[in-house]
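Cross-posting from the modeling subforum.

Setting up a comparison between two proteins and wanted a second pair of eyes on the formatting. Protein 1 (sequence, then structure tokens):
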Amino acid sequence: MAGREDKAPVDRASSDKGIRVRDVMSRQVYTVSPTDTAQSVARLMKETGVGALPVEVPGVGTILGIVTDRDILVSVVAQALSTSTAVFEFMTVAAESCEEGDSILLAAQKMHDLRIRQLVVVDEKRHAAGIIALADIVRVSPELGELVLEGMSRHREPEDQQLEGISPCPA
């Protein structure tokens, strides 16, 4: 597992289009193995203050997916699964990613479209080079942050919203 570093410095004079993912991403990222447990991942998230961890092939570094604090809540806690449940049983396979050289506009658009708060930043070998989160984008461009939030709050399909056994209210 890798340690955490401070955010990269940002040239505030640059336009949003000129700011690259590498300029704002968290450069060092913690990763977990698909065989780690829900409890060990939750502890790592608590200790490091992160809400998402890329899942990588041990010893190889290739990113298989991502696990978020929400995944643990919805897939493990809410379903009363054991805290020893392995990450591969509830992770999101094929984590959404971007590259270090991508513009933050592109990253924000991807987050908006996919309704997600973070992207794994990968290098040319598809290894985790960092994480870019909504908070990173808001820090340099509140307008782009609003775009991402707008995408997250847009209407979802009824089957996505409906809780088991509860009918949606008529419009």
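Protein 2 (same layout):
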Amino acid sequence: MTNITTSQTIGPFSHEAWQWAADASAAGTLQTSAPTITISGTIYDGDGTPINDAQIEAWQPAAASAEAAQALPGFRRVPSGEKGEFSLRLSQPAAPTSGEPATFITVFARGLVKHQFTAVFLEDDSGLAQSAILAQVPEQRRPTLIARKTAAGVYHWDIWMQTDKETAFFDYV
């Protein structure tokens, strides 16, 4: 007897089936007592083609109290757009912990038998060099977890599922 259960891909109807959580965590309906940031990017497959049917989930445990009025405090789910684009509007608690991720990310996409876990950090965080999480990632792969601030004040971060640009993903046991 084993405790292992089978996995399956998210199937062709994830956008419809999971829409309730995307609606509950939509950027336009965010009620927060904290300042916000936006992280936007594109999700790509191994051929460099944008993935137009991915689901990207963000979890910010530290933001839950600032978002107490939200249906799902500290949680976002966004489907990727037709060109693989996504955008996450996130609360930033008054005193974010230096070296910690801006948010933890889970990626669901066609062809994945198992969802993938990662995290995104902000390039202007002065504690990146002391981050216990980044220290676990080979130095040459760390840039795949760093969102860069654009001239417009939005952070840009792409997710690559494969290739030499592949985002560093984590296993949790």
